[in-house]
Amino acid sequence: AAAPAAAPAAVAPKAVAPKAVHVQPAARPTVKLESRTGLAKPERPRPQSTPFVPAPAKLAGPTVVREEKPDIVSAPRKKGPLGPTTGAGVTQAPPRGGRGVKTGEEEEEGGEKKPGAKGKPVSARRRGPDGRRGEADEKLREFSDQDLKDRAERILAASAVRQATDRHLSKTEARGTHAQARTAAQRGGAVEIEEPITVRTLSTVLGVKTNELIGKLMKQGVFANINQGLEFETAQLLALQYNVELEIKTQPSLEDELMAEFDSRVSDPANIFPRPPVVTILGHVDHGKTSLLDKIRSANVAAGEAGGITQHIAAWQVQVGEKRVTFIDTPGHQAFTAMRARGANMTDVVVLVVGATEGVQPQTIESINHAKAAGVPIIVAMNKIDRADANPDMVLGQLAGAGLNPTEWGGDTEVVRTSALTGQGIPELIEVLDYQTQLRELKGDPTGPARGSVIESRMDPGHGPVATVLVQNGTLKVGDVVVAGVGWGRVRSLLDDHLKPRPEAGPSTPIVIAGLSELPQSGDKFFVVESMDRARALTQERVDLARATQAADKSKVTLESVYGQMKEQGIKTINLIIKADVQGSVETLQKTVIDQNTDEVRVKVIHAAAGPISESDVELADASNAVIIGFHVVPDESARAMAEQRRIEIRTYRVIYEIFDDLKKALSGMLAPEIREKLHGHLEIRQVFKVSKIGSIAGCMVTDGHVQRGSKLRLSRDGKIITEDLTIETLKRLKDDVKEVKQGFECGLKITGYDDIKIGDRLEAYIRETIQRTL
Questions:
Q1: pLDDT tens digit string along 321-341?
Q2: CA–CA dist 165, 240 (Å, integer)
Q3: pLDDT tens-digit profile of 212-229?
Q4: What is the Cα–Cα distance from 31 to 28, expressed in whole angstroms?
Q5: Long-range contacts of 246-251 (CB under 8 A, 24+ apart)
Q6: What pairing do the DSSP bridges indicate for beta strands 31-33 and 493-495?
């Protein structure tokens, strides 16, 4: 190897003039000479650091799943077309001259060539781009087969996806078809619906949008919202438009289950005993019902009745020898129809009291109808037979005309002649009642739980809500849990008709119970249940049902109700608060005062309850501008003082007639007066005089009647009315002002503010009279 060249000799630097540097003297750096440039450069100090050594690079890439080589297709020959594509790949047709295409089998491995048919090697043009034609064809065939397999797999996967899609579409279509046919409006037929019926519930049942139902209602002239109640007939008409028939769905309530439980109980024949008959006294007012009952029970109840008439239901059990009879006395006034109906529905025998002097009256006919509707036998007590003006034959004829054929005339109705003053016929009446008891075989089971009906209820100052009930089966005991209407509770005490405490009450026994939470309605059924929880659930169900029914009734929309609401806007109303001593009187008054309503004036009951008039009633009357009516009750001192301070009117009554008379007077005063037109003369205009600054003056002849200064005029021309309500400004006879001109005389008159008159016009003179209307 050649030795390295010697280093060049050092070159001496040039002399450089020193520069003045205003720095502190310091050590100068060592100056070295560069052989390449020949310049001296100062050597700078370098920092001491660890040199950076990069880490060796690592190649990372995707994982190779399958390595595919590019398809190398041999170039086509100049002569001869390519063969058709087959399923195994691309092949070439044999060239002309019968020479075939060399394949890979004719070539040796390692690139050595085999001679051809004549010992000539295969040219590069015939071998292909890669120099090995047979290998290219093999590779081409290999990758073509793989592509076909991939394609087949893709087609298979696509077909599976398509089958799943078709299956999903078929299920969706089937489900859609089922969904379209599952609504009642599309199926048709009969469907069930619960009451109360509203637009919302009807839409849910039919499967129709609420807007569509509201639109159909509007076409019928009924304007309702989504929560509006509908009558069953209106809902049925809507449903029939969709070929659907509605049926009311009734689910068994807790009360129905309780009734079924009591009805399904089978009594042991050894525990069934005869029971006293329950006899209801019915008849017209002032025919002697209570007086006859007083004679039977040796009491004097009629003397304590206000106005001499019974205004409450009363019940007693009378011991006549060895026989016991339970009597229920009902009022006879027409206002107490509901009370008489309840009395007839809980009785075994009806005693119809008919006065021998008055005969059959309207309330007598009504009592007969109640008894026939209840399906109980009727015994007629012809009272007041001791009076000199008694006419028994007339009474018998009237009874036969009313459908009660007396036994004296070959009929089947017992008629007993009685007298409440002398006691005549009372033993015979008791015998007939006992005979009816034996004939009907009245029996009861005193061993089971009690059930019965509420006769009356009231607020007692010492016991709170109390109810007079009739035990119809079983035995009621102190401590039993009772459900009566909307009231429930445990029986704290039992009082008989003489207000004496009793430990229990058997069948056909009237008894007063204390311990209820609320006042039940007269006629409600009462039951003895096993627990307080069940009693509470029963009453809550009754309250909810009553509230829902009331709300639905208020919101029910029909064409008549819409017209009624439009009319109510101009109706004058009297607001009332009714308080009475017993619940039966409250119901009677509430119903009767509403019956006084007309198209122009009406009575609206704001609140009705049993009990004395309290401060809360006065506050309610003050808030609602109402009048308080007390029937057999009076306000306490605090309520009276508050009413005087707030100027609230409180009226108390003892007889129901007085309430109706005062209501009629008040309603009559609210009626708009009637204005009647009274025609009193006709005039014919025979001359018209036009006067400046005055107008037209009519010269008239009074053809009939008379005309006076205050008359109204109606102008007619050629048989047609032109105008009316004209007033007379001036009326003269010759030159004198007069007040009246009679038939056959001429007069001149000036019509106030009207000058369009002609000769031949006719005038009608009339006046309007105001008449106060009454109910």
A1: 677 788 887 764 444 455 555
A2: 41
A3: 888 888 887 777 778 777
A4: 9
A5: 246/190, 246/191, 246/192, 246/193, 246/205, 247/190, 247/191, 247/192, 247/193, 248/192, 248/193, 248/194, 248/195, 249/192, 249/193, 249/194, 251/194
A6: unpaired
